[in-house]
Structures are given as structure tokens and as C-alpha cells.
Amino acid sequence: MNHGTWYARSAELISSAWMHWTVWLRIPGDVVFALGALLMVICVLRAIIAIVQEPTQAQPRTTVSSELS
Question: How far apart are CA 33 and CA 27, in angstroms?
């Protein structure tokens, strides 16, 4: 609060050891976020493929004559 916004953007603060430490502290959260995003993309692509893909097994046919007897 003693300094203005100009101090937060200064080279003195950006190159400080504290700032480098906070950058490294972000890495675990970024990795978890990236893995979650990748998993979501994979699930969406698999769902789209399942919708578009033809059935692999022949569907059983029911006939009217077999249902009546």
C-alpha cells in the first residue's frame, strides 16, 4: 500500500526472489488443471466418436409373425 501500481511492474520487484518463488508455486496447480482439461477433451472426443460410429453388432430383428405366435 506504500507504493503505487508502478512499483508492482518495476524490474526490481519482478526479478526478486519472492516473485520467482511464487512463479514456481503455480506449477502444481497448472499441471493439475492441464491434466483435467486433457481428460475432458479425451472424454468429449470419445463421446462424439461413439455417437457417429456405426454399431458393431447386428441388432436382433423382431418380426410380426414371431411376436404373434
Answer: 10
| 54, amino acid identity | E
Rounded Cα–Cα distance for residues 43 and 45 (Å): 5
Q: What is the pLDDT of residues 10-35, one digit of tens each?
A: 888 888 888 889 989 999 999 999 99
Tell me how far CA of residue 43 lies from CA of 35, 36, 37, 47, 49, in angstroms: 12, 11, 10, 6, 10
How many contiguous H segments (helices) and E segments (strands) does the chain have? 5, 0
* One-letter amino acid for residue 46 of the chain: R
Task: Give the type of residue at 52.
Answer: V
Contact 19, 13 (CB under 8 A): yes
Query: To which residue does cell 455417437 refer?
Result: 51
